[in-house]
């Protein structure tokens, strides 16, 4: 991987299981200054990425963005919105409910099947007693289309130098406005309630 990547390149990966295969790929990107984006839903890997590779990424100018697919992307995008609505710090407890439509045949559904399976994601901010104080709803394309769109849009922004930090959180990398624009570009839209 180190021989294939260089400073400013973007490595987009869907390798899995990422706990087993992801660290060497992330380490290679961080060591040469290539940006790293993945679609994992493995929360432990995303947490470990910061511990294991963040310093090298910061030193080389690499931006590390794990968990940027359907599993985490919409929640990453709308959780801060729910908190802003509630005028609470980002540290508030976020409870997210994700409803998924049926997934198609092995290998993933084709374009017409994906068009029949849109998503609806809800983020709720709760106070210490568990009372919901704010919520945000977004809808969008199928999980397959959304994941591909999020990965491609993030990669394009990284190539264009639009990331602002080597951090592993998309909100920090793109800012709230940039992240909202990226999500809108991939088809995520507010759902009126």
Automatic annotation (TrEMBL):
Superkingdom of origin: Bacteria
Protein name per UniProt: Saccharopine dehydrogenase
Gene3D superfamilies given in the database record: NAD(P)-binding Rossmann-like Domain
Species for this entry: Amycolatopsis deserti
